[in-house]
Fold this protein.
Amino acid sequence: MELICLDLEGVLVPEIWLGLAQKTGIKDLERTTRDEPDYSKLMTQRLSILKENQLTLADIQDVIESMDPLPGAQDFLGALREVTQVVILSDTFRQFASPLMAKLSRPTLLCNDLIIGQKGTLDDFRLRQPDGKRMAVLGFQSMGLSVTAAGDSYNDLSMIKTADRGAFFRPPQSILQEEPNIPVFTEYEDFLSFLLDRN
């Protein structure tokens, strides 16, 4: 049996933190996992910036509500789910993801949790588990599933390399230079053909 594991932001939906940076004008929020390999370090920086600027969960959710999946993502994911099982492995948070999941017809999503203060402040974050994407792939493989994994950022590398097959979708040039042997796709049509190729 086969399973496809996909990253969320940058693959199916826009980067939430970039959207927040554009909405608020806070340039420091533009840094993402495409720039910083250490996710915990990145999130600690983000929480500090939110606190400094007195931004709450409601402020962020307002931005997310206005976002739509990337052009073509809904059709791509629908075509993929007609043929095989798909799980979204993301470092986003349950409190962020729901509106976007609804727009993608609610695929299975494994992600993290935020710790929210009484006034809606983002006080901390709780990872599902360390290196959760890779651990999920290992878990699926332990159940006898053949896993194909794809993402766009540094935090996807471990799951891509652990999977039976892996690929990048629209990654930054820096990752392409560091990982030249991993297949790269920029259009959903070609990406879909790769994911469904059983040879």
